[in-house]
Design brief:
The chain is an alpha/beta fold. It contains ten helices and nine strands. The strands form two sheets. Strands 3-2-1-7-8-9 form a six-stranded parallel β-sheet, with helices on both faces. The longest helix is centred in the first third of the chain and has 17 residues. The protein is elongated, with a radius of gyration of 19 Å. Bound molecules: ligand BJW.
Length: 253
């Protein structure tokens, strides 16, 4: 049992998971931290060393393409080498027991898919490809090691490439966003794991569920703007410990 977590909250969460008929999960960077991917904000976050806007905006890429691409090279390499932790497989168990578990993620690292989650809605894109920053019309290119031989990588037209992830000020992929809002508006339980809840529109999804009277289970070692809202059951611990505990209570093993 996680020391920080009173057991009765775990069993309350387990009862909700068991009873849910249309549960949806929404994850952020904290989901991946126990697999070795650094979060953005907070003590060990990426953005302790650099300003968010310098790394995660089109202006940032134009101003400092080498720095940004160095950052993506590091992350891509890390993501290829890393493995999903026990919390990911706990979600896979829920998926197989329930028959379906739509999962919305802000993460671009592909770890949910690597663990075996079938329906992953990627709100902020993924690290799979890059395309022309000037949208010259050339097809996007796969992010492979060769792409990083010379930084910054360039499009065939000579402009620099940008990763196909969603940067600040950019619209999210239309279909992913439509599905995410639809799920928030129709689920009977939402689980929100490892997000600081500061980036819109992902941060609005649990609020939509709460407004309908639907309960939200939050898993995060830290307090977030979601934690104290009516209808939120906040489990203060890590994804890698809390999720397997919930699954153990619901499905045994
Ligand atoms: C653990 C743990 C463990 C640790 N277990 N938990 C003013 C007000 C309101 C909104 C705006 C505004 N000005 C502009 C906006 C909109 C803007 C926004 O929200 N800005 C705010 C920061 C103010 N949003 C956008 O621009 C979005 N687009 C948009 O809104 O389009 C419409 C529009 C267009 C133009 C103008 C206005 C509106 C796009 C957002 C794109 C975000 N992109 C990034 C980079 C993606 C690519 C990449 O990964 O390289 O996405 S930024 C970064 O933040 C990344 C993340 O997905 C995102 C969220 O971070 P997340 O996942 O919450 O991580 P952290 O690090 O913040 O938190 C980790 C948490 O885990 C912590 O709480 C820990 O405690 C916890 N944790 N270990 C469980 N083991």
């Amino acid at each position: 049992m996680n020391e920080l977590q009173p057991g009765n909250l775990i069993s309350e969460a387990a009862d909700m998971v068991e009873a849910a008929r249309s549960m949806v999960v929404s994850t952020g960077a904290g989901m991946s931290s126990e697999s070795g991917v650094r979060t953005f904000r907070g003590e060990d976050g990426f953005w302790r060393e650099h300003r968010a806007e310098d790394l995660a905006s089109i202006e940032g890429i134009r101003k400092n393409p080498e720095l940004v691409w160095e950052w993506y090279r590091e992350r891509l390499k890390a993501c290829e080498e890393l493995e999903p932790h026990a919390g990911y497989y706990a979600l896979v168990t829920i998926q197989s027991e329930k028959g379906i578990l739509p999962l919305i993620t802000q993460n671009v690292d592909g770890l949910h898919q690597k663990a075996g989650i079938e329906d992953v809605i990627e709100l902020h894109g993924n690290l799979g490809s890059a395309s022309c920053i000037d949208r010259c019309g050339a097809p996007s290119v796969e992010m492979t090691e060769e792409l990083f031989e010379e930084l910054p990588p360039r499009c065939s037209c000579g402009s620099i490439l940008r990763p196909d992830v969603v940067l600040f000020g950019e619209q999210l992929p239309e279909e992913a966003l439509r599905r995410a809002f639809h799920l928030a508006d129709s689920c009977d339980l939402m689980m929100v794991i490892g997000t600081s809840m500061v980036v819109y529109p992902a941060s609005s999804l649990p609020l939509i569920a709460l407004q309908r009277g639907v309960k939200v289970i939050e898993i995060n070692p830290e307090v977030t703007p979601l934690s104290s809202l009516d209808g939120t059951i906040s489990l203060h611990g890590t994804a890698g410990s809390i999720l397997p505990e919930i699954v153990k209570v619901v499905y045994g093993g």
